Amino acid sequence: xxxxxxxxxxxxxxxxxxxxxxxxxxxxxxxxxxxxxxxxxxxxxxxxxxxxxxxxxxxxxxxxxxxxxxxxxxxxxxxxxxxxxxx
Length: 87
Prior knowledge:
alpha+beta; three-stranded mixed sheet; 5 helices
């Protein structure tokens, strides 16, 4: 699934419902590793909630991909894998 499709398929909940059931949504977001869109009457105030483990993974990925050298090593490793796996 592409990132844009995943964002469009994100579960959404109105703010007041999120607030009333905060503990339930926190557990669900962490258990399922699916982000949750919390909507408001003003769309610019909407937020996306993700679990800390997923946030940490995103931060690590962004850090690794911020290095041109690391990106080149990943690309080289993927090419070697594809050469050896016939893909």
